[in-house]
Amino acid sequence: MLKLLLGTRNPGKIYEIKLILGEIGFDFRSLNDFPEVAVAEENAETYAGNAIAKAGFYARATGLTSLADDSGLEVEALDGAPGVISARYAGEHATDADRRDLLLSELARTGSANRRARFVCAIAIVSADGEVLNLSEGICNGSITFNARGTSGFGYDPVFVPDGYNETFAELSDEIKNEISHRARALLNLRNTLSLTV
Description:
Layout: E1 3-6, H1 11-21, E2 27-30, H2 47-62, E3 66-75, H3 96-110, E4 116-126, E5 132-144, E6 160-162, H4 174-180, H5 182-194
Parallel strand pairs: 1-2, 1-3
Antiparallel strand pairs: 3-4, 4-5, 5-6
Helix pairs in contact: 1-5, 4-5
């Protein structure tokens, strides 16, 4: 069985990835199994660039084929911010709540009635010898709430309502979120490709 390193220590991401890819038959590892491995830099200008760089870094560091993602929230009234710096939007050591609070305050400051936004996710798989085996992208359109709602998920989930729903990602069930989210769509695209080769 092929070992696949999930290039994250985030338990929410690990859970989502395993849930969607699990049936393919990988032997999953995560960065939690490699505490000595440093955190990959994210200094590319695109989600795909960051995903490939991170997957390549972790593949070299562990000797395992590695999967990494980069995702972000793009808010129309903020000219697409926070975008590729979504995870670092409120500073290096900020919490998810800090990032959400900053986003809502910045959006309120614009005075705009436009709450449209989208989540974007790019996922790359890179082999131990540096070959990019797969790159997939997923997008989920929606809008930003005025206040955080819900306790599930992570990141900006409590302030994002996907199109066609009244609940935030943090209020929706895992079953629904794992069908419609940006990461789910990227993973499903990835799974469809991998199922042909695994």
